[in-house]
Design brief:
The complex is a heterodimer of chains A (248) and B (76).
Chain A: E1 12-15, H1 21-32, E2 36-41, H2 44-53, E3 60-63, H3 69-78, E4 82-87, H4 102-125, E5 129-138, H5 152-172, E6 178-184, H6 199-206, H7 217-228, E7 239-242
Parallel strand pairs in A: 1-2, 1-4, 2-3, 4-5, 5-6, 6-7
Chain B: H1 3-11, H2 36-50, H3 56-60, H4 65-75
Classes of the chains: A alpha/beta (248), B mainly alpha (76).
């Protein structure tokens, strides 16, 4: 018997946005830690690719467009009582303030902010979060401590999520439910591939990281595992920065 | 789309640069006011006005306003 305070053995965990990036790495890592994982995403093929990489048995996949209220409600209805949820689905944006369009603002708030809040509401209302469950939001350093030119819409959506996270942590503590966020700096995922950013810009930006590189999805997944596991049983309302020292 | 209209949209992005000094042949990268925000704003302007998405790599090839105009025109 090996000592492992971070085990997810016997836990049922829902991961949204699992078809790529941090969500995919998280779903796979959770399965390797012994969890039964329910993954959701919009793209059939890519979600299947994630599903194929899950280790162990007892996993499920649900194709869902969570900005569609009916599909979001249905997801909350169909899942069994959960030990953990990782609200990970998200989109990015690179828009200077004077070019913000109301539709773009609505879209990013819808995906990054409203969906995780409404999914939380629905899961609670249907009593799908067990006592002792852990809710994790994939936010960003731009939600708590970092600003950048053109990043306003994304930052606004993530700031709102961190506001929600802290309030939910306080409100749900009496149900024994913990709520935290992970707040990565730049991670090598598709969400950060903008045509408006050149390779030269990336190299320059990377130099601003004391650890001299961007993060990898797995490095965020491991922090999420900590927050899902009983190792963090006394941690709630925390925004966990994972940024290679960027915000120092 | 013509160069004068394009020049007008482009000069509107600037606050401290005298618009009358900008011509199609101006090297915008030499302007004191040129910045990463203006680069991003230029891409956003071209997207908004002409529905053309220029990548940063494509934009790097342009130094004058006319070169930017030609790049944009080629993608309409």
């Amino acid at each position: 018997m090996t000592f492992n305070p971070f085990t997810l053995e016997g836990k049922i965990i829902l991961v949204t946005g699992a078809s790529s990036g941090i969500g995919k790495a998280t779903a796979i890592a959770c399965s390797k830690m012994g969890a039964s994982v329910i993954i959701t995403g919009r793209n059939v093929e890519r979600l299947q690719e994630t599903f194929n990489e899950l280790e162990g048995v007892g996993h499920n996949q649900v194709i869902a467009e969570l900005t569609d209220e009916d599909q979001l409600t249905k997801l909350a209805e169909m899942v069994p009582p959960l030990d953990g949820i990782v609200n990970n689905a998200g989109i990015g944006s690179k828009t200077p303030i004077s070019f913000i369009k109301k539709t773009d603002l609505q879209t990013i708030l819808d995906v990054n902010t409203i969906v995780p809040i409404m999914l939380t509401k629905n899961l609670l209302k249907k009593k799908k979060m067990k006592r002792g469950a852990s809710m994790v939001f994939t936010s960003s350093i731009s939600g708590i401590c970092s600003v950048d030119i053109g990043n306003t819409l994304y930052s606004v959506s993530k700031s709102a999520i961190d506001g929600f996270m802290k309030n939910a942590a306080k409100e749900l503590a009496e149900k024994g439910i913990r709520v935290n966020s992970v707040n990565p700096g730049m991670v090598n995922t598709k969400i950060n591939e903008y045509s408006s950013v050149s390779e030269e810009d990336i190299q320059r930006d990377m130099a601003n990281y004391p650890l001299k590189r961007y993060g990898n999805p797995e490095e965020i997944a491991y922090a999420i595992i900590y927050l899902l596991s009983d190792a963090s049983a006394w941690v709630t309302g925390t925004a966990l920065k994972i940024d290679g020292g960027y915000s120092l | 789309m013509d160069i004068n209209e394009f020049l007008n949209h482009f000069t509107n992005l600037f606050d401290d640069t005298d618009a009358s000094t900008l011509t199609p042949e101006t090297n915008f990268r030499d302007l004191d006011e040129w910045s990463s925000l203006l680069a991003l704003s230029t891409m956003s302007m071209i997207d908004e006005e002409y529905d053309v998405q220029l990548s940063a790599e494509q934009m790097r090839k342009a130094n004058t306003i006319n070169e930017l105009y030609i790049l944009t025109q080629a993608k309409i």
